[in-house]
Amino acid sequence: xxxxxxxxxxxxxxxxxxxxxxxxxxxxxxxxxxxxxxxxxxxxxxxxxxxxxxxxxxxxxxxxxxxxxxxxxxxxxxxxxxxxxxxxxxxxxxxxxxxxxxxxxxxxxxxxxxxxxxxxxxxxxxxxxxxxxxxxxxxxxxxxxxxxxxxxxxxxxxxxxxxxxxxxxxxxxxxxxxxxxxxxxxxxxxxxxxxxxxxx
Length: 200
Hints:
Elements lengths: L1 H35 L1 E6 L21 E8 L6 E8 L4 E8 L8 E7 L26 E7 L21 H9 L3 E7 L7 E4 L3
Antiparallel strand pairs: 1-2, 2-3, 3-6, 4-5, 4-7, 7-8
């Protein structure tokens, strides 16, 4: 009798162990999906590039630094962002650019600005780009969500070696493959003072 009780208890514990194991595996699968949809950047002056690009891109000597986290929604229609930086003076604007580590690529999405949109215009057929939030002038954090309404479409650039961005789906594709970077621009460094490639 006691043997049967122990055997039943043992089988029950094994079933519980298998159930918990499956839940852990499924949970890990969800975590991997979240990682695929998130990109992060460490922003430094050493990562900056001038418009001239190769063969010897110029970096920026700065005390500034920052981080950017971009999280894509499951349906790929929104990008939630969190940009944090410090050690800067007179921040003008911050963006997501299309381009690899060694190019000065075009702006496709604004994170914040203190000087307006400049020459960036909405995609054909879209309404005006919503006014971005103000940037902290020296240090701080900005958060928000970007959608197709925020996109500034850009033609392909042979000079920068960047592809055409004609839709939000194009921007998402470039984000997924690591071909975007986050850049914070200041009055002293209008081309960008700190930047970093958006990577997994």
